[in-house]
Write a structure and sequence with these properties.
The structure is a single chain. By secondary structure, the chain is mostly beta strands. The protein folds into two domains: about 15-105, no CATH class; about 105-210, no CATH class. About 0% of the residues lie in helices and about 50% in strands. It has no helices and 13 strands. It has strands spanning about 15-20, 25-30, 45-60, 70-75, 80-85, 90-105, 105-110, 130-140, 145, 150-155, 170-180, 190-195, 200-210. It has a four-stranded antiparallel β-sheet, with no helix packed on it. It is elongated.
Length: about 210
């Protein structure tokens, strides 16, 4: 469907079967624009969701299509604790003016086997260890990295000087962290986003030690 409001871009609409509150329901859903702009309270990264945008409140209604489901929430640009819809309503832990509510999903990235070279040729099939990684991001917030999905570590975005009662701003740039993984022959890097926040990875730069043998 052509969307005349957003510069004539095409917009994907779908009829989706969902199992909600013990029954199968069909809902008409559409995909939001990928580029939501520079205001993170407009970020809408959830399925079958709705948006409230009015006076600050803690009570949200009109969620009957998600009755009994655990929903993910973005409140005024900040991730909020999940809630269970009851009677078509949820109650927020804090008052918010713009709130997105819907079904959460997890985004995963797994790199290919790393090739870092070695003194005796290639690094493939050799024991190696990633000591640290630098991740280059664009308008990103809230992600985990690790050598496998059972040992992921949050990347910190809030500084000690930041105010605690305001959302953390989206980050564009490089973050370097110690990579806590074991010795192996693969050298995979996993990135996971489980929050309703944007994530764009531009590059991953690992520091690797390759063991000859």
């Amino acid at each position: 469907m052509l969307d005349p409001i957003n510069d004539g871009e095409y917009q994907l609409w779908m009829v989706v079967n969902r199992f909600v509150n013990g029954a199968t329901r069909r809902t008409v859903e559409y995909l939001n624009d990928f580029d939501f702009g520079d205001t993170q309270d407009d970020a809408f990264f959830m399925d079958s969701g709705l948006t409230y945008d009015s006076v600050p409140t803690t009570t949200l209604s009109g969620l009957d299509h998600l009755e009994g489901e655990t929903v993910t929430i973005l409140a005024d640009g900040a991730s909020h604790a999940d809630k269970v819809v009851s009677g078509g309503n949820i109650t927020l832990d804090r008052s918010a003016q713009k709130v997105h509510v819907g079904l959460g999903y997890t985004s995963l990235l797994q790199t290919l086997r790393i090739e870092a070279g070695s003194a005796q040729g290639v690094a493939q099939s050799k024991i190696k260890r990633i000591n640290e990684i630098t991740i280059r991001m664009h308008k990103t917030l809230g992600l985990e990295v690790g050598g496998d999905l059972d040992n992921m570590e949050n990347i910190p975005f809030r500084s000690s000087s930041g105010l605690m009662n305001v959302p953390i701003s989206l980050f564009s740039g490089d973050k370097t962290i110690e990579f806590r993984d074991d010795y192996n022959t693969d050298g995979h890097v996993f990135v996971r986003q489980a929050q309703p926040l944007p994530l764009t990875i531009l590059a991953i730069y690992p520091e690797v030690t390759v063991y000859e043998g």
